[in-house]
């Protein structure tokens, strides 16, 4: 693997899921693989899981780790090409990346959507600068339009829970529903887009449920069925992925939604004992109820744990390339 910014960087999805599950069984299988090499984990936005799971994964592979919480700890970065830097910004992103090239064998970066300019976000205005200027493999820790390490962890988690589905001995594919949930502010599309992209590579029946006005970018959802009625979509669901996002068409707007889309235990009764997923962090009793979060259908903490093995499988494949 030469880089990891989307599902298209994975040559064989089932194989990398299998590898991640082997790593989960024995996380210290490859403790020397990263010896003498350095990974830079650069965060332009907040993180709990991505930051810590990436550190554990890198540590398990013997990598040296540099973590930079750039928004808090580094110089104020300039992103615009040709900017006259006589204002608040101190260092251009191009120069920062060139310096990271001197210190790191792998650069991993988190750069969320700004949610101000649709064009900038759709074109990955920050990640593209890393792809352009980095001389080492680039890994996305969530960018404007995708969160591939999360989606891989989601695929691992679904795979682990297929035993439950198989036991039901029904003659159909597992039904996975990505359902929109309420939120108090405009949220990016990266997790939803990415989950949609990866689910199209899995052997599942995949549908998306969201209110009118909240359809995701067709470039990610392609021919996936989008249902504007949550109850209808949830019927017989085996996996329910809860996620908020703002409008894509009317970029970052929050059109009014009359029905209550918060996931509750009552709504789960319509499902096939559906397992509930969420990438976290979650706004309890806004996106889903406490009873769902703390209930027996939730596989949300398992999903968070699998972030380690998702990252480790990817770092390991990148190291294979560097060591070859
Ligand atoms: N990395 C996982 C999700 C990050 C982000 N959540 C947030 O921004 C939550 C913010 C809040 O709840 O105030 C999102 O949903 O795209
Ligand atoms: N799910 C996820 O990416 O969590 P963090 O934003 O805390 O890293």
What string gives the helices and strands in order? HEHEHEEHEHHEHHEHEHEHEHEHH
Q: In the CATH hierarchy, what is the class of the largest domain?
A: Alpha Beta
List the ions, cofactors and other small molecules found in this model: N~2~-(3-carboxypropanoyl)-L-ornithine, phosphoric acid mono(formamide)ester
Number of strands: 11
Main beta sheet strand tally, sense and closure: 5 strands, parallel
Named CATH architecture of the largest domain: 3-Layer(aba) Sandwich
What shape does the CA trace take?
globular
Helix content: 25-40%
Total tally of structural domains? 2
The CATH superfamily title of the largest domain = Aspartate/ornithine carbamoyltransferase
Count of alpha and pi helical runs: 14
Structure description:
This is N-succinylornithine carbamoyltransferase. Homotrimer. Carbamoyl phosphate binds at residues 47-50, 75, 110, 147-150, 279-280, 307. It catalyses: N(2)-succinyl-L-ornithine + carbamoyl phosphate = N(2)-succinyl-L-citrulline + phosphate + H(+). One of its GO terms (molecular function) is amino acid binding. With 324 residues, the protein is α/β, with parallel strands linked by helices. It folds into 2 domains: 7-146 and 307-323, Rossmann fold (3-Layer(aba) Sandwich); 162-298, Rossmann fold. The protein has 14 helices and 11 strands. The strands form 3 sheets. The protein has a 5-stranded parallel β-sheet with strand order 9-8-7-10-11. It has a 4-stranded parallel β-sheet with strand order 2-1-5-6, with helices on both faces. Helix 1 packs across helix 14, helix 2 (49-60) packs across helix 14 and helix 7 (148-160) crosses helix 14. The chain is globular. The termini are close together. Phosphoric acid mono(formamide)ester binds next to helix 2.
